[in-house]
Amino acid sequence: KIFIDPATHLVTGAEAQISAGEGPEAMSAKVTMKMTAKGYDAPPKPITFTPGDRKAVDSIEELFPAEPAPKASGTMAPDFTLPQYAGEEVTLSKLRGKIVVIDFWATWCGPCRRGLPLLQQFSDWARENTDDVVVYAINVWERGQNMEEIVEMVGDFWTKNKYTMPTLISMTDAITRDYGVSGIPVTVVIDKDGRIAKMHSGFSPKLFDELKAEVEQLRDAS
Fold first, then answer.
1. Alpha carbons 15 and 13: distance in angstroms, whole number
2. What angle do CA 113, 117, 121 make, to 5 degrees?
3. Angle 207-221/110-129 helices, nearest 10 degrees?
4. Which helix (H) or strand (E) holds 175?
């Protein structure tokens, strides 16, 4: 119930019965609230607004832009150059002629942690059975204050889990924006011409088998 003063039309109180649904009656309670409402012909103090670095928008869509759309199969994979943890920078366009598998992940991401062992399994298979497939995990959206802190977090995580596949580190959202990634993990298979062959979103217990089949198909077609 809501109580309204008939003269001022202001809310003066409310009454509610709270219960646990299927729970025992002892868990229910009656809550009564009383309010002192005041009205003013004019605000007691002028209302001011300091915009700071805020900017005006013309629509709600501009305020909350749509999530980026994933890149379609057959389109060119956006180029990137990223630093490698415990290694040199990697540039995608310099890997033409090889099938490239990249996986977006973060240490705080539960599905990523479940998928990385399967990615490591695939990386091991590729290293032992091919000479034209490379695998890179790409750390994104990490919750660190600076590059030094994130490098330490990634290094500790990599060492603890005994991963040997290389991982790159992205300090900005540029690469996830370019690839249309709005959630992780996402695994991308890129063919020898630099085109996206497949994008996997979310964790899949069949990731190793899926990547192996897709890569073998690309190798047979080349």
1. 7
2. 160
3. 40
4. helix 174-178
Which are the contacts of 206, defined by CB distance < 8 A and separation ≥ 6? Answer: none
The Cα 45–Cα 69 span in angstroms is: 47
76-113 burial, b if ≥16 CB within 10 A, otherwise e? ebbebebeebeeeebebeebeebbbbbbbbbbebeebb
Helix, strand and coil percent figures for the chain, each rounded to 5: 30, 25, 45
**Could you tell me the two tokens for 167?**
């991982």
Please give the average per-residue pLDDT across 205-214, as a whole number.
Answer: 97
Rounded Cα distance between 78 and 135, Å, is 16
Strands of the sheet containing 29-34, edge to edge, are 2-4, 11-18, 29-34
CB 107 within 8 A of CB 153: yes
Cα 78 to Cα 23, 156, 219: the distances in Å are: 55, 29, 21
> What is the CB neighbour count within 10 angstroms for residue 203?
18
**108: which DSSP letter?**
T
pLDDT digits (tens, 9 = 90+) for 152-182: 999 999 999 999 999 999 999 999 999 999 9
Distance CA 211, CA 128 (A): 15
Q: Read off the pTM.
A: 0.71
DSSP codes joined into one string, 3-59: EE-TTT--EEEEEEEE--TTS-GGG-EEEEEE------SS-SS------TT----SS
